[in-house]
Structure prediction request, 154 residues.
Amino acid sequence: MEVLVPKATRRSTRVRVEIPVGVISLDRKRPFGERCTVLVVSAQGCGFRASEPLDVGTPLMLSGLPGGGSVTAHVASCVPLGSEGEHFLIGASLYTHGNVWGIADPPADWKVVTEAVPGPAKAKEPSAPALKVSKKSWPYNLFENSTELHPGKK
Prediction:
């Protein structure tokens, strides 16, 4: 009996690269910090080589990206590379999608993803009007004029 499974579609094209980045875990219970090499990127994430496995769901920060930026992500997958268990391919899913990798001519389907993400090149939307705060309203009304003390000072 043949089982038919719908073909999985990728949200954006993957591009092979070699980008050195710093990777740190943002979870204190799962410490990790290492200089890694990103091997494959897309508008939604990346795959990087690490010397130790990471638990799925671990929040990460990738720094030292092309252009000097950093980005946050979480571990989506972790598979050993080879049979020795010396290296692992960590799949990371970006919290903010886009071309954070500095790819000069990204695939066309990356542009569809980045249009939904606000960026510095887009015109700034009008901001909400500033709220007027009265010194007589909470929490300002808890202290008389100039009598507020810092909790550590007496």
Summary: The chain has a mean pLDDT of 77. The CA atoms of residues 133 and 140 lie 9 Å apart. The radius of gyration is 23 Å.
